Amino acid sequence: MKYVMKNKVLPSLPLIFLFLTLKAEIIEKRDVINLYINNGNSTHFEGAVTYVNDGDTIEVKRNDTGQTVKIRLLGINTPEERHQDESGHWIYDPEPYAVEAFNYTYNLVYNKTVTIYTASDQTYQTDPYGRILGVVVSGKRVLNIELLREGLAKRLFYNENPIIKFEQWVKAEGSARKRRINLWSHYHQNRIVITEVYPDPPGNETGTGEEFIEIKNFGKKPVNLKNWLFMMDRDTHYRQLTLNDFILNPGEVCVVSTVDEQTFRNLFPSMPSNAKYLKSEDEFYFSNNPHPVEQRIFYLVTPEKYIEEVLTFSLDWFDGVRNGGKSLHRANFREIEYGSIDANSPDKSLFYADNPDPGVVQ
Predict the structure, then answer these.
(1) Which of 32, 118, 124, 312 could form an S-S bond across to 134 if both were Cys, CB 3.0 to 4.6 Å?
(2) How far is CA 259 from the centre of its chain?
(3) CATH top-level class of 38-183
(4) Is the dihedral of CA 78, 177, 330, 221 positive or negative?
(5) Which letter does DSSP use for residue 337 in this model?
(6) Domain 188-354 is classified in which CATH homologous superfamily?
């Protein structure tokens, strides 16, 4: 049916409704994109997803060039499905939630046309393996953010990529942490908690063994730390905490650093004799000037590769004094971290700055 007014033919009401709906969807999609990326620093292209390698890597046939390119989802890391053995052969041995992350990505984007947003500055366009670092948008959904929000990925920033609005990445991951879903579902299951961290000894950041992590068993059962793992800052793979039996009984405190025990006790003579000490299997040191600063993160992981504990902190929480000889103590052992380290972070209330005293939990 058509409507006539002053000799003009007007479009039918269904056509007007369709036009308004499409316009609203375009505006909504634009608003969604602007929420998560700095559009002025980005460029984009469209293409069909032809292959899903894993949860955070896909292949896209570009509409503009016809070339098939590999896309590494920017700002996140999903669990690995495979690893290489000593001979270089790939072994299918999925980490927890790796299959779920793959399925989520596959179901959302495979065989669909997506838009890839990447930095307009070529410096930030690819990773060390030549893959395009991109934010993948399907319809009105941002795949990178969806994976974080579903607890199927954790943050991973290769560098301070100018298109990421970091605070939104933090909020998406924080949502999954608070709900304790998927990657975060085993948080504190063994009741092993990081109680103190000393990341920035005055005058030097690495090499002396002064940096340490302190943990305590708040549970009711002994925990063997053998084959436990850790991940720091921008690592994509876990490293060994210890290969030997190391029992942490209920109520016991353990200090972890990188030198032998006697050297460490000489550095901190006030450390109680009953506090245990563990020299980590792999060297570690904190990246005290990470880019972005939101990447100062430490994960403690069980042998089954479930995340037991995570610590996200800012040097500015140390009474605002960097290199001031302060350590960071955990004041609230039960509350889950949100994952933000800015000046107004809700996590800041979980910690307080004080002089380093390894082996003493206040």
Answers:
(1) 118
(2) 28
(3) mainly beta
(4) negative
(5) P
(6) Lamin Tail domain (2.60.40.1260)
The one-letter code for the residue type at 264 is F
Give per-residue pLDDT as tens, 42-92. Answer: 999 999 999 999 999 999 999 999 999 999 999 999 999 987 877 878 888
Q: Give residue 16's pLDDT band: very low, low, confident or very high (50, 70, 90).
A: low
Beta bridge partners of 114: 47
pLDDT tens figures, 180-205: 999 999 999 999 999 999 988 876 65
Distance CA 226, CA 222 (A): 12
Yes or no: say if 306 and 192 are a contact pair by the CB < 8 Å rule. no
Secondary structure class of 72 (helix, strand, coil): strand
Nearest Cα residue to 47 out of 72, 71, 64: 64
**Burial environment of residue 90 by CB neighbours within 10 A (0 to 12, 13 to 18, 19 or more):** exposed
Angle subtended by helix axes 166-179 and 13-36, to nearest 10:
90
What is the DSSP code string of 147-164? HHHTTS-EE--SS--TTB
- According to DSSP, the residues that pair with 137 across neighbouring strands are 115, 142
The per-residue DSSP string of 24-50 comes to HHHHHHHHHHHHHB-GGGEEEEEEEEE
Alpha carbon 359 to chain centroid distance?
28
pTM metric for this prediction: 0.88
Q: What is the identity of the amino acid at 330?
A: R
pLDDT at 1: 47
Domain residue limits, the chain: 38-183, 188-354
Cβ contact 327:353 at 8 Å: yes
CB of 318 within 8 A of CB of 355? no
